[in-house]
Structure formats: C-alpha cells, structure tokens
C-alpha cells in the first residue's frame, strides 16, 4: 500500500486497525507517530507499545523491538490507511471536495440540495455538521480527522449515498487528511487571506488550498471562481477539465443581479444559450457566487438547469450565514460568520444596498485566530458601517480587551468606534439603537452556541440573544383593530 516505505524488523506489516493517539491504542493496533502543532507522536511510542501496539508507522528509525514502517509523511500515510481500512468508499461514490476562504459551507449545502432535487442521495460533511444519509448531527469542526472522515464516508456508502460533499479546510489539506480519497469534483470558491497564524504566509495558505487538486481522479473536474484573481490563475494549472463561473467577468456560467431586497434577491443564471431567473431568500453578491459554483457542479453531473434552480431556491437559510432574524421588528437583523475582513466587507456591502437607514455592525475577532486580520476587520467596519460596535467573539486565552485593541489599530479614527466586551450586552445595545429602516449585522461568530473564555466555555448564541431581545421588545406593541360588518376578525401580533 505504501510502495515508498521502508520496513524494519519485518518483511511486511498487516494492518487491521490503527491509532494516532497512544492513549487510545489497543492490542494489535498499528500506532502512527505524527508530528502535530504541539506534540510529536514519536515521543509516545513506548506508551503505545505498552497499550498493545504491534507495529509502528513513523518518519524515522526508532529503538524498539516492534516492526517499524518508515515513511516521509505519516499524516498522509495515516489518511490512506484509514480510507483503506474503511474499504475505500470514495471509489464507489462521487465525492465532491469544496474549499476556499469564504462560502465553503454554503456551497456544500447548495450542492447537496441540487443533487437531492435531481433524485440523488447525498451525504455531507461541513462545519455545520454531517449528514451520512441516515441521520444529521452538528459538530464543531470544519473537516474531521482522517479516521472520522473515513468512517463517515463509509457510513454514507452503506446508507446508499451516491454522492458525498466534503468541506475541506486549509488546515485539513495541509495535514493531508483527504489523502486516500478519490475526489470526483473540486469546487474552489475563492482564495483570499486567512489562517496566517497556521500557515505563516498567504503563499503557504494558497498552496495548502491548491493541494485539493492533487486528490482529483483523472476523470474528475474542477469549478473555480474566475472573478477571483487567485482562482483564475489556477485555471491554466488544472490538468483535468475545469469550469469557470463569474458575476462580473467572462466565464462558462455567469449571473447578473436583477433586484435585491432585505428578504430576497433575484438574479439571472446563464449557462450556454440558456438563461433562467433564480430567486433566493439569502442575499448578497457572495451568495450569487456560491449559487454559481454549486450550479456548475450540478450541470456537469447532467442536472438540467430548471432542476438546478429549484435546488438553489430550496435553500432559504443556513445557520449563521447571512441568517435573517424576523421577529416583527421594523429594521433588519442579520447574523453572519464574517470572521475575515473580505467576508465582513461583502456582508456590509450587501446590506448597504438594501438599507435605507443606517448599517449597524456588531463584530469581534477570535483570540485563537490570526492576529494579523484584526486591524483589517476594524478598517472594514469603520468604512462599511455607520455605527460599529467592537465586542468579543471567542477570546480564548487572550484578554478580550487585547483583541479589541488589535482591532482598533485598523481604525483611522478610533474615537468613532464603540467598545463593549460583553457580547450579549453589545448585541442588545445595537438592537436598542436601531430605528425603522436600519439594519443590524451581528458578525464574527455565526452558529456556535458556546464562547471560549480562557479555559471556560460559556453559553452564547447570537441568534438566541437577538430573538430574545426582539420578542421582549415587541410585547408592548399596541394594535388598533377596526371591525367592519360582522365577519370574522384575524389579529396578527409579532411572535412573543
């Protein structure tokens, strides 16, 4: 299975199960020594042997009596072994990998909806959770580790899935978690700047994203955003058939926005000589791009354009992705992940176009995230919002005030920024400031319902906080009712 490997202490090694955690190693397991961000698995070989490991997979020779298989990259080898032990499910399903800086989760859901509308059974793994074709469960990771991913694909196949959509983070690609998976299609939404704390530079970050193309099978295809300069450069480097999408430039599949409101937008989707209108409940240019990428995947799989449109329109909301909060209030409220400066800029720009009053932005940055993007968030919020309120997102081990100070460094006029570290209080204050015709954007977290503060996890749900305040605020509403004739009367009140 690993032709370039060198085996010491045996002619060959038969693997029936493996483990990458020495504490979880069971008798007869192959222990895989991987170098992580904080620990080196080679330092725990003796513990794995004490727990029953029968052989070791490592990147160097080790002083042990157990057989040792030496490879150049144990992370890649581990992923390949996990897929093999799961029966290589990607060889019998059409697996679609989705990556990019922004929009991955939404594109995954749109692709799933299109293919299900066309009659396929589609599994999915994204940052919102997984769907194995039998049940759906939430989780708190973008791309699971190699063992979990292999097991998930195996369950999808067992449950009759014909297609599987996998969201691939840059960290997962840099750690080779998708090795051993034969991708039938790759969709790249955009390539911007993110996770420099992990990758060190934008070049390394883009290089990690591009690794997904190496997982494409020879008969596979790719879809890229031609309006994104970094993606456009990839077109000449992709050896398999590739399809481009664009909203402003030239591409095989394009779109043009017809009208946009807070509650919906309509755009014309053009593919070849066909053009059809698409009406989505989710708004913004970024969502049009997401629809284009998903539509391209569906069209290559032979789904007709009308079915593609039905699949796109079926997805009327995605938790934490420009999620509209409607509680009868006279102003707009949206919750969006928008944790990068370009994502925040796109969200603010989309809301500016449909807002007659002020745009109010409540946002923050992760303490565990890339520090270099904090001033960029501040610069975007100052320019894109009429009223910006800096608060905490997930401070982690850092002081919330330190993170906020880094964001303030991006302001040309810091005195214009409002600071309120308590996120729940900040959201409620922003809502209390909103007037008829305004729009409030609550950005930076999306769907997580827990906030990490040092070593403590505290309940915090942006959507729930906003809804609770809006419902409470609407209870004092007075309604005048005029009854004419003797017919039945229907009274409509805001929920709550």
From TrEMBL:
Q: Sites of the modification N6-carboxylysine?
A: 209
What EC number(s) would the UniProt record show? 6.3.2.-
List positions binding UDP-N-acetyl-alpha-D-muramoyl-L-alanyl-D-glutamate.
22, 142-143, 169, 177
Q: By what name is this protein known? A: UDP-N-acetylmuramyl-tripeptide synthetase
Kindly list the positions annotated as binding ATP: 100-106
| GO MF annotation list | ATP binding; magnesium ion binding; tetrahydrofolylpolyglutamate synthase activity
Q: Give the EC class as a word.
A: ligase
Q: Name one GO cellular component term.
A: cytoplasm
**Which ranges carry the Mur ligase central domain?**
98-297
Question: Which pathway?
Answer: Cell wall biogenesis; peptidoglycan biosynthesis
| Origin organism lineage | Bacteria, Pseudomonadati, Planctomycetota, Planctomycetia, Pirellulales
- Claim: Disulfide bond is one of the keywords in the record: no
Q: Which residues form the Mur ligase N-terminal catalytic domain?
A: 20-70
């Amino acid at each position: 299975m690993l032709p370039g490997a060198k085996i010491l202490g045996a002619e060959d090694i038969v693997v029936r199960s493996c483990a990458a955690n020495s504490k979880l190693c069971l008798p007869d397991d192959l222990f895989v020594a991987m170098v992580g961000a904080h620990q080196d698995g080679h330092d725990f070989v003796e513990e794995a042997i004490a727990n029953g490991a029968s052989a070791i997979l490592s990147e160097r020779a080790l002083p042990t009596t157990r057989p040792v298989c030496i490879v150049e990259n144990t992370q890649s080898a581990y992923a390949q072994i996990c897929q093999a032990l799961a029966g290589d499910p990607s060889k019998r399903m059409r697996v679609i990998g989705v990556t990019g800086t922004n929009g991955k989760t939404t594109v995954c859901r749109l692709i799933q909806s299109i293919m299900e509308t066309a009659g396929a059974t589609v599994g999915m793994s994204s940052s919102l959770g997984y769907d194995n074709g039998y049940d759906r469960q939430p989780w708190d990771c973008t791309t699971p580790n190699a063992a979990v991913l292999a097991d998930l694909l195996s369950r999808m196949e067992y449950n009759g899935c014909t297609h599987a959509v996998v969201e691939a983070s840059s960290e997962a690609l840099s750690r080779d978690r998708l090795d051993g998976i034969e991708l039938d299609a790759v969709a790249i939404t955009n390539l911007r700047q993110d996770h420099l704390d992990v990758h060190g530079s934008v070049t390394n970050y883009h290089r990690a994203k591009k690794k997904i193309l190496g997982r494409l099978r020879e008969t596979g295809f790719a879809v890229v955003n031609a309006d994104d300069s970094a993606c456009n450069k990839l077109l000449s480097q992709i050896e398999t058939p590739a399809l481009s999408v664009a909203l402003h430039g030239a591409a095989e599949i394009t779109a043009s926005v017809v009208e946009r409101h807070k509650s919906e937008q309509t755009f014309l989707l053009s593919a070849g000589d066909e053009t059809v209108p698409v009406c989505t409940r989710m708004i913004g240019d970024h969502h049009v791009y997401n629809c284009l990428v998903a539509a391209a995947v569906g069209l290559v799989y032979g789904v007709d354009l009308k079915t593609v449109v039905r699949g796109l329109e079926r997805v009327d909301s995605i938790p934490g992705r420009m999620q509209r909060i409607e509680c009868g209030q006279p102003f707009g409220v949206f919750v969006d992940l928008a944790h990068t400066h370009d994502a925040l800029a796109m969200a603010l720009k989309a809301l500016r176009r449909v807002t007659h009053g002020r745009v109010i932005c409540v946002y923050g940055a992760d303490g565990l995230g890339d520090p270099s993007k904090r001033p960029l968030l501040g610069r975007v919020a100052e320019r894109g919002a009429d009223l910006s309120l800096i608060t905490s997102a997930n401070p982690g081990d850092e002081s919330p005030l330190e993170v906020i100070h880094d964001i303030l460094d991006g302001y040309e006029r810091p005195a214009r920024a409002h600071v309120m570290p308590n996120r729940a209080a900040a959201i409620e204050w922003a809502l209390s400031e909103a007037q008829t015709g305004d729009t409030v954007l609550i950005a930076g977290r999306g769907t997580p319902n827990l906030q990490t503060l040092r070593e403590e996890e505290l309940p915090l749900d942006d959507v729930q906080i906003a809804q609770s305040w809006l419902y409470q605020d609407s209870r004092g509403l007075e309604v005048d009712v005029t009854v004419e004739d003797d017919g039945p009367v229907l009274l409509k009140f805001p929920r709550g």
